[in-house]
Amino acid sequence: MLDAAVKDAANLFVRPIARADLPGLLALYQHLNTEDPMLKQQLAESRFTEILAHPGMTIFAAFDGELAVSSVTLVVIPNLTRGGAPYALIENVVTHADYRQRGLAGAVIRRAIESAWEKSCYKVMLLTGSKDPATLRFYANCGFTQDKTGFQVRRPA
Question: What is the pLDDT of residues 11-28, one digit of tens each?
Fold first, then answer.
């Protein structure tokens, strides 16, 4: 069941983010891109409202009590190919620096993939900018294969 809390190997709970989790999620995101400025509260609340209302978009997080310590964003995208089967994208994989190397990122990724399969997605994609062999091995251990070429274009500053 999508909203059921599941225990991971580190005995922390993985569940979809709720409105009350926004402050903790914002604090956790500081461990993703440390140079990113904190969002202004009004903008953060507006974006979070959009995320919660966006069909097919879920942020899963592992919690140590009330503290979000690892998270991943899953976006399920409707599709007109592959027999109409949707596909999914994983983004913003992050674990709090004090909680790394405990299997938490793997737990939230597995939960996101499970959710994608529940929604009949035919594939789940993930991009990483990391060239670190350990990071690439981690994603391979999560079941991802590096068999496509990814491209991106970013808006000019």
Answer: 678 999 999 999 999 999
